[in-house]
Every structure is written in C-alpha cells, then in structure tokens.
Design brief:
By secondary structure, the protein is mainly alpha-helical. The protein has one domain: Ferritin, CATH 1.20.1260. Helices cover about 85% and strands about 0% of the residues. α2 packs parallel to α4.
Length: about 170
C-alpha cells in the first residue's frame, strides 16, 4: 500500500509541483505540451498493455485509452496549429515522460495477471492525478478560451476513464 501512496505523491508532484515550485502559472504553450505529453504517456501505456495482456477487460480498457487519447491529442495539435502556438517543452512534461518510461520499464518485467493488476492500478492512479492537475492547475492557468475549453472537455473524458479504470480494477484479480 505504501508503494501506491508513494506513486500518487510522485505523480502529483510531477504534474503540478514543478510548475508551482517555479512560483508562476504555466503558460498556454507549456500547458499544451503538458496535456499532450500526458495523453501520449497513456497511449504508450495502453499499447504496452495491448502487447502484454490477454485479459479481455484490460485489453478493452487499453483500446479505449488509445482511441480517446489519440483523438484528444489530435484536437490539441489542430488547436495549436490554428492558434499558431508551438507547444513548449518544460520541466513538468520532461518529468512526466521520464517517470512514465520508468513505469513502463517496471511493468515490462511483469506478466499475466500480475501485469494486468499493476497496469490497471497504475491507470487508476494516473487518471486521478491527471484529472487533479487539470482541475487545479492546467485549466485555471489556461489563458486562451479555446485551450481552456479543450482541457475541460478532456477532463470530462478522463474522469470517465478514471471510473472505467476503477471498475476494471475491481474485476482484475
């Protein structure tokens, strides 16, 4: 249990702490990059699950993650192009990417039901963290109304993902 709590604390710190520690709200280009990175991370995790899992519930969840996150990331890139905004890499997005790679490496060492359980539990934690960061940092910091609207739409979708992950976690033993 302490491992799960530590993961949540690290993830929350990665999503919001780096920006807040700088004492400034993230800019729209930084927000765009953080949101895109968070979506890309979940796509990569889902693709790993599709390669490694034989569990129908896990696979269905992972397929939904790929579909939804690719759609939202496509909308984000189109909005950036429309607004002539270049997403800006930053400490938060770099930390997210590094932590995600470490998690994928950890999951790659697992198999079968152990992998399925770890993947789904990570998805619950990840979506709780991303949803929290969207609601408390990214959406309130966004200055552009269209970016804010896309983030709000994404939050609704990702809250559904969190519920789906929690339901899948209850089925994966």
């Amino acid at each position: 249990m302490s491992s799960k709590i530590a993961s949540v604390i690290v993830a929350v710190g990665l999503l919001s702490g780096a920006v807040l520690a700088q004492g400034a709200k993230p800019t729209d280009p930084q927000i765009a990059h953080i949101a895109y990175t968070a979506g890309s991370i979940d796509i990569e995790a889902a693709k790993q699950a599709l390669q490694m899992s034989k569990n129908a519930d896990v696979r269905a969840f992972a397929e939904q993650m790929v579909k939804d996150h690719e759609a939202v990331n496509k909308q984000a890139l189109a909005l950036c192009k429309k607004l002539n905004v270049t997403p800006e890499d930053n400490d938060t997005s770099k930390s997210l990417a590094a932590a995600a790679k470490a998690k994928r490496d950890q999951l790659a060492k697992l198999s079968g039901a152990v992998f399925d359980k770890a993947y789904i539990e990570n998805e619950v934690t990840y979506h709780k963290t991303v949803n929290g960061a969207l609601g408390s940092v990214l959406i309130p910091s966004a200055q552009n109304a269209e970016l804010k609207s896309l983030l709000e739409t994404g939050l609704k979708i990702f809250q559904g993902h969190q519920q789906h992950a929690e339901m899948a976690a209850s089925m994966v033993k």
